[in-house]
Amino acid sequence: MSSHPLRLSRFNIVSLTLGFAFLYLPIVILVIYSFNASRLVTVWGGWSTRWYTEFFNDRAMLDAAWMSFRVGIASATLATVLGTLAAVALTRGGGFRGRAAMSGMLYAPLVMPEVIAGLSLLLLFVAIDAGRGFWTVTIAHTTLTMCFVTVVVQSRLAALDRSLEEAAMDLGRDPFRAFVSVTLPLIWPAIAAGWMLAFTLSLDDLVIASFTTGPGSATLPIRIYSEVRLGVKPEINAICTLIVGFITVLIVLASLATKLSSSRGASAAPL
């Protein structure tokens, strides 16, 4: 085998460049045109932040953004609690009865089309005569994002050295206190990463929220979609830029938390 490091060929460099341009060039153009002074989104009129001011003066948009943040925080918190408990059960529960069915139900939202999930939840809320609003959207987003939290936390638990928790129990801790004092601090970055991922997915969701929302509880993606159907306004570019920046920060924080969790697990020597 050659000891020389692999070098990118000219074809690979061109392919990577075209691939990244296809993915990120539209976002870059959107960010640039969010600072366009012209009212026409296709005509450049100089640099300006007037559309950001328009957004912060738009009461309907601000209400929709506040609704999205409330739903995102509530659903991400519920999904993190339930997803962490599910991950512990799947990792530490052994071969209990119904494990395969539980795994299948947890991972089903990962591959199920959002239209089907949204329609199913809508029929459920109609069947139980639940008024659609904040809580129906929150429950729907919790159902959607819990499986992602389970995957993240379960992968961290599977790589964790169980002997650390067993040593704590040998020193007099009961299983619950050993988990809280030893295991939980080690998997906390993975839990935080799962929460950020769940919040991001909830903030971006349009399909499921459109099925489960009601009057006066429209989220920001629904509001943006209703505005875009009548024509793209420069204010939409400013809103999307703020969302892209906010989600980028969350993704970076989630990545750092995941790397921190992995490094802690690697540095923890078995007793």
TrEMBL record:
Tell me where it mainly resides.
Answer: membrane
Q: How does it sit in the membrane?
A: Multi-pass membrane protein
* PROSITE patterns membership: ABC_TM1 (PS50928)
Assigned keywords, A-Z: Cell membrane, Membrane, Transmembrane, Transmembrane helix, Transport
Check the record and name the Pfam families matching this protein.
Answer: BPD_transp_1 (PF00528)
- Transmembrane helix as UniProt keyword: yes
* Transmembrane regions: 12-35, 71-93, 105-128, 134-155, 176-198, 236-257
Concerning its family, UniProt says:
Belongs to the binding-protein-dependent transport system permease family. CysTW subfamily.
Q: Could you identify this protein by its name?
A: ABC transporter permease
Species assigned in the record? Tardiphaga alba
